[in-house]
Amino acid sequence: MNQDELNKTPRRDTQDERLLETPRADEFLHTDTWRVFRIMGEFVQGFEDLARIKNGVAIFGSARTPPDDPEYKAAQETAALLAQAGCSVITSRSSSNTSSCAR
Predict the structure, then answer these.
(1) Are the beta carbons of 63 and 94 closer than 8 angstroms?
(2) For residue 62, what are the CA distances in angstroms to 77, 78, 80, 99?
(3) Which ranges of the chain would DSSP assign to H, the alpha helix?
(4) Which one of 56, 65, 74, 77 is CB 3.0 to 4.6 Å from 97, fit for a cystine?
(5) Dihedral (Cα; 64, 68, 71, 75), 10-degree rounding
């Protein structure tokens, strides 16, 4: 039986029949257990990346701050001063005053 035929096979009616059904070859990659492993891998990668940063400063802000707001401009100035002083400035990727620091 090829993969197309397997995909067209109708679902069994009872829970017992579904329990005994042979899973697809890649089905385990989409389970909650593997999702946890993928998320955990992202955390590990993030910590490894952050471990190399010396003198880092994280700046947090609101996504609702418009670019013409004085706080937005202050965040940009603060980030520029920190970068000129040799600090790594860590920001979010959202459209916020935090991302203004990266500009």
Answers:
(1) yes
(2) 16, 16, 19, 10
(3) 3-8, 15-20, 32-51, 70-84, 97-100
(4) 65
(5) 100
Residue 77, domain extent: 55-103
Judge if 60 and 19 occupy the same domain.
no
> Tokens 């003198």 — which residue?
55
What pLDDT is attached to residue 48? 93
The residue type found at 96 is: S
Q: How many CB atoms lie within 10 A of CB 91?
A: 20
Q: Is 91 within 8 Å of 59 (Cβ atoms)?
A: yes
For range 65-79, the mean pLDDT: 91
Indicate whether 2 and 42 sit together in one domain: yes
Residue type, 88: S
